[in-house]
Specification:
By secondary structure, this protein is an alpha/beta fold. The protein contains 2 helices and 8 strands. The structure holds 2-acetamido-2-deoxy-beta-D-glucopyranose (5 copies). Residues 41-42, 47, 53-55 line the site of one 2-acetamido-2-deoxy-beta-D-glucopyranose.
Amino acid sequence: MKPFYILLCLFHLVIIPVESETEAEALLKWKESIVHANSISSWSLTNSSNPCKWSGVTCSTTGYVVRIELHNTSINGTFENFDFFSLPNLTKLDLSNNLLHGTIPSTISMLTNLKFLNLGCNKLHGIIPPEIGSLSKLLDLRLNNNNFTGPIPFQLSWLQKR
Ligand SMILES: *[C@@H]1O[C@H](CO)[C@@H](O)[C@H](O)[C@H]1NC(C)=O
Ligand SMILES: *[C@@H]1O[C@H](CO)[C@@H](O)[C@H](O)[C@H]1NC(C)=O
Ligand SMILES: *[C@@H]1O[C@H](CO)[C@@H](O)[C@H](O)[C@H]1NC(C)=O
Ligand SMILES: *[C@@H]1O[C@H](CO)[C@@H](O)[C@H](O)[C@H]1NC(C)=O
Ligand SMILES: *[C@@H]1O[C@H](CO)[C@@H](O)[C@H](O)[C@H]1NC(C)=O
């Protein structure tokens, strides 16, 4: 009986912060794939298990990650390990002026609350994903100074005007 009771207690403890843990885990998974992650050294569970306290991360009053702002922070990496599914409340993603390379995954369309997307001044290549056009809340999109190929997807014309 006793071990079972302890297990129940643990389960209860784990259940409560499940949302922020998922977001923290998603951010840490991405961090692990970054070369020169000095600027996000505060992204660590030993610092705080609450990602809201990490540098460049802002949360809503309800504790969801709503902004990631890492402009000009020498971040060198890709979106391969960026879990767009785990950050549903993100309204602002500013990773401009860094060393991001690789492509923008079409799953960026999972960020359905996104209003501001700035990936300008990086080394991204490939196509501009047409799925960006389905980000119905997007107000400000900046993709300048990268190395994209192909046409500007017509789907971007679906984006609302300010
Ligand atoms: C923990 O995070 C805070 C907020 O970003 C930062 O000021 C502090 O330096 C961090 N501490 C360590 C040990 O990284
Ligand atoms: C980027 O950061 C570096 C070092 O922190 C600084 O010297 C440089 O002026 C910054 N560049 C821009 C465009 O903000
Ligand atoms: C960025 O990381 C890649 C490896 O992923 C490396 O080839 C490249 O030299 C790095 N760029 C800089 C400026 O450190
Ligand atoms: C934040 O995300 C959670 C989980 O997906 C959702 O229940 C909640 O409504 C979202 N809040 C906003 C403001 O979108
Ligand atoms: C951009 O792409 C072209 C052709 O694929 C390549 O030759 C060039 O080196 C790339 N530039 C940068 C800055 O990655």
